[in-house]
């Protein structure tokens, strides 16, 4: 089990009902963690999902490390 | 080169002085305005949210790429977040360079990349009462439903 | 759609209100500034002259062409004439449209055509005392010589 | 002989030493008139010359008409 911080934005923030949380997870990768959260919060279908780990773009198959700050990034729409 | 995320009304008149340069003959700006419709739905207002720490890094990176690809002198991009009304300025990009060709190309490059890469999200509130996060399949009305529960 | 030739300092803040439109999400401007060098020569100041009656017709025609080629909502171009200093705004082009692609393309089309077709001439006064009409073979120093006679 | 008005701009204005003049000419076309003025005022070599007759772009082989307003247009350089 690893303890990580997750920050939520946009539709994920609304589904999770919070800006961030700290949780212990048995997920080995960012992608596994996303599946876990998706099940818990009922995220809507997204065209694609990206992830940032410790404020750097990363990939869903990246192993989680104790203390990571994880942000899942739904399709962006700036401008 | 400067990328900013701002919570207050954007003031291009203030920012433009950062781009003045006696070597420059060309100055191109892009402004993204909140418009009153999107994909056939009437929009009432918008809400922008940014993952600011990563957004600033990605924005700076885009400006650096533009300066590497095109021989420009200065470039600034400011993106607003928070609640915006129709007609409000959501993003401002400005580029100055010796000649106009590179200023046009760099300005276009910056706004295209910002829209695709910077972690900013836009929630549209429609005249009919629905709302939705743009680019998010099945997200329209989801949020509203979520809040009503 | 409006094309103007102005003898006073250009004020984009004033003109831009003519382009505001709640249907528009994209607004692109080009500013041509007087720069301190041209083709290797240090420029001190510039003088623009226009054949105004024909220039206004040709300018209006260019804006109409841009509106026909691209689905834009508004376009304005103002060209200044008279004596200008380094950093002064010589020409301002602004286009608003629903989406950014057509605003960029129309703005570029307008400035390119204005530069090639509108009867406006530019005389550069160089730091070394020479002067010359731009694009005019053998005209640099000719004018000075002419006046000295 | 026809009487026409000529307006001068840019380098042509400086060579002619005047903004405009009214003159009688035996030139049959705008191009012949330009050659006549070139000889008189010593215009510099130009990459190209265009002509406007009565505030419309025209061509150098256009015949002159009594009362025409003629403007010779050296290479432009706006913006």
Q: Specify the CATH homologous superfamily of chain A.
A: Beta-grasp domain
Strand order of the largest sheet of chain A: 2-1-5-3-4
Strand content of chain B: 35-45%
CATH class of chain B equals Alpha Beta
Give the SSE string of chain B.
Answer: EHEEEHEEEHEEH
Stated plainly, the CATH topology of chain B is called Aldehyde Oxidoreductase, domain 3
Count of discrete domains of chain B: 1
How large is the share of residues in beta strands of chain A? Answer: 25-35%
Biggest sheet character of chain B = 5 strands, antiparallel
Query: How far apart are the first and last residues' alpha carbons of chain A, in Å?
Result: 40 Å
| Contiguous uncertain segments of 5+ residues of chain A | none
Helix % of chain A is 10-25%
Question: Helical region count of chain B?
Answer: 4
Kindly describe this structure.
The complex is a heterotetramer, with 2 copies of chain A (79 residues) and 2 copies of chain B (149 residues). Chain A is an alpha+beta fold and 79 residues long. Chain A has 2 helices and 5 strands. Chain A has helices at 10-16, 30-41, and strands at 2-7, 20-25, 50-53, 56-58, 69-73. Chain A has a 5-stranded mixed sheet with strand order 2-1-5-3-4, covered by helices on one side. In chain B, strands 3, 4, 6, 8 and 9 form a 5-stranded antiparallel sheet that branches. The longest helix of chain B is centred in the middle third of the chain and has 18 residues, at 52-69. Chain B contains 4 helices and 9 strands. Chain B has a single domain (2-145), classed as Aldehyde Oxidoreductase, domain 3, CATH 3.90.1170.40. Chain B has helices at 12-15, 52-69, 100-117, 142-148; strands at residues 2-6, 26-33, 37-38, 41-50, 72-80, 82-85, 89-97, 120-126, 131-133. At the A-B interface, helix 1 of A face strand 4, helix 2, helix 3, strand 8 and helix 4 of B. Strand 2 (26-33) of chain B pairs antiparallel with strand 2 (26-33) of chain C, so a sheet runs across the interface.
């Amino acid at each position: 089990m690893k303890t990580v911080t997750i920050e939520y934005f946009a539709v994920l923030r609304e589904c999770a009902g919070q800006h961030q949380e700290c949780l212990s997870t048995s997920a080995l990768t960012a992608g596994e963690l996303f599946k876990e959260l998706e099940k818990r919060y009922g995220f809507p279908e997204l065209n694609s999902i990206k992830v940032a780990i410790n404020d750097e773009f990363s990939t869903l198959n990246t192993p989680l490390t104790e203390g990571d700050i994880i942000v899942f990034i739904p399709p962006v729409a700036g401008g | 080169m400067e990328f900013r995320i701002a919570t207050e009304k954007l003031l291009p008149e203030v920012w433009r002085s950062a781009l003045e340069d006696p070597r420059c003959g060309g100055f191109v700006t892009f402004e993204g305005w909140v418009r009153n419709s999107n994909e056939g739905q009437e929009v009432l207002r918008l809400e922008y949210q940014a993952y600011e720490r990563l957004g600033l890094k990605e924005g700076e990176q885009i400006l650096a790429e533009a300066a590497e690809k095109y021989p420009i002198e200065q470039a600034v991009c400011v993106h607003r977040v928070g609640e915006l009304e129709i007609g409000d300025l959501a993003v401002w990009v400005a580029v100055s360079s010796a000649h106009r060709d590179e200023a046009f190309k760099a300005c276009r490059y910056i706004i295209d990349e910002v829209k695709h890469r910077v972690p900013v999200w836009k929630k549209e509130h429609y005249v009919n009462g629905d709302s939705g996060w743009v680019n998010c399949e099945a997200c329209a009305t989801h949020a509203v439903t979520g809040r009503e529960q």
